[in-house]
Specification:
2 helices; 6-stranded mixed sheet; mainly beta; 5-stranded mixed sheet; globular; single chain
């Protein structure tokens, strides 16, 4: 498995590269009123309106800083079984990719109810990387808000 890693609250997290479309520099987002604090807003990406989730705000409850290494990871997000939409994931200190075998990936032995998107972990020479499950990243109610029928 190939992972892109990033930092949230001092800890490392990873995303599998399969759904990643592109990684772009930080862009200004237009605020969406009355959405959860981890919804960074929306922006225009080649004619598509793309919602952005601040992973730092989601995971550690502190908004991402505008660091030189802060990026927007554009993914093909599975809205339902029949369609995907582009979703931006704002992340700090986005690093290069790392490759792991399935044998390297283990269960953490815990499943926080308020963080169903936390999946398995992998260890490397620098410590642990918690892998995010993109299918569980957004609650159904937020999916309906961000991805209305076209």
């Amino acid at each position: 498995m190939l992972l892109i890693t990033f930092i949230c609250g001092g800890d490392r997290y990873g995303l599998g590269i399969e759904p990643i479309q592109e990684i772009i520099p930080l862009v200004n987002c237009r605020n969406i009123p009355r959405t959860p604090a981890y919804v960074a807003g929306i922006f225009d990406y080649h004619g598509d309106i793309v919602p952005v989730i601040d992973l730092n705000a989601l995971i550690s409850r502190k908004p991402s800083r505008g660091l030189f290494s802060t990026r927007i990871i554009l993914i093909n997000y599975p809205v339902d079984k029949d369609r995907t939409r582009i979703l931006g994931l704002k992340a700090e200190m986005v690093a290069s990719s790392s490759s792991f075998t399935e044998d390297d990936i283990v269960s953490p032995g815990i499943a926080p109810e308020q963080a169903p998107y936390l999946d398995r972990i992998v260890r490397d020479g620098e410590g642990m990387i918690h892998i995010l499950d993109l299918f569980k990243l957004l609650p159904d109610k937020l999916k309906r808000i961000l991805f209305t029928e076209e």
